[in-house]
From TrEMBL:
It is found in: Nucleus. Transmembrane segments: none annotated. InterPro entries: Snail/Krueppel_Znf, Znf_C2H2_sf, Znf_C2H2_type. Gene3D superfamilies: Classic Zinc Finger. Residues 116-138, 165-188, 189-218, 219-246, 247-265 form the C2H2-type domain. Belongs to the snail C2H2-type zinc-finger protein family. One of its GO terms (cellular component) is nucleus. It comes from Nothobranchius furzeri (Turquoise killifish). It comes from the Eukaryota. This is Snail family zinc finger 1b. The keyword Transferase does not apply.
Amino acid sequence: MPRSFLVKKYFSSKKPYYKESQLDSQTAFVPESFPRAELPNHNNISALTCHPSSPFYQTMDPLPAPLSPITPVSLSPPALRPLDLSSSPSSSSGEEEDDGERTSDPPSPDVAEHIFFCLRCSKSYGSLSALSHHQTSHHLQHLSPLAPPLQTTSMPPEVSARPAFHCKHCPKEYTSLGALKMHIRSHTLPCVCLTCGKAFSRPWLLRGHIRTHTGERPFACQHCNRAFADRSNLRAHLQTHSEVKKYQCGSCSRTFSRMSLLHKHCASGCCPGS
DNA sequence: CTGGGGACGGGGCCC
DNA sequence: TGGGCCCCGTCCCCA
C-alpha cells in the first residue's frame, strides 16, 4: 500500500475540539532500563525521570519538583499549514473525512521539556537522544547478538546475514538494534500514565490513553456532532456515514463497515472454512 | 447476530 | 539511528 498518507499534514485550519492549553504533552518517559518493578506508583512516582507540566497532572497528582523546573520547549511542527484536502487520500465521493488532525496525537505546540535520568548510573541528560546514546553502553551489555559467540567480539551485527539481535524477554529476533529497541519497549513499557499507572510502549499511545482521563476528543466528525479521542475510531465512525461498506463477505456479498464485523459475520457461519 | 464506540498494539515511513 | 507519527487492525463491551 502506498504510504503517501504519511506526508506530514499539520492542519491548523481545523482544530475543532481542543484548546491549545490542552495540548501539552503528558508523556512520561522512563528510560528503557527502568526496571518494570519500579514503575511509578503513588509511592515512588518521583522515580519518574520527567514530569509533565500538564495542569491536569498537577491537579490530579500533585508532584514535588525533584528535578529541574519544567519549561515549555518548542517542539511543535515546523509550520502549521492549511489542510490540503486535495492531497488527502480519496475515498468514495469524498466521504472520507479530511482526517485533518494527526492521529491519536493532535498537534501539540506545547511540549514539556524532560529531564532524562539513567537509572543505572544516575547520570542525567537533557534529551532522550542523549540518554539513549548513553544507555547504549548499558544496552550492549544485555543485548545478545545471535551470531556465534566467536563472532560477537569481532564482527559487527550488521555484517551478519542472519538476525543479529534477539529479545531478552521473548524469542523474537531482529536484524537491527533499532528494531530490537523498538520491540523491547513493548516489554519495558516506558511510558507511564501518572494518573492510573498504566504503561505503554510508545508516547503517543500514552497520549491517547490520557485522553480517556481528560475526556479530550480532538477528532470530530463533520457529518454529525460526534467527536472522538482516537482518529482510528473516527475513521471507523465515518464508515457509519458511508453508504458503501468497505468489507464484503465473500459468500453472501453482504458488506460491513468494519473488518471485525465481517470477521464476526463469517465466524457466525456464513463463510464455512474461512 | 449486528452495529457501533472505546481503547489499544504494531508495522512501517518520514524527518 | 531514533523518535514521531500515520494507518490498519483487533479486542472488548454495550445496545
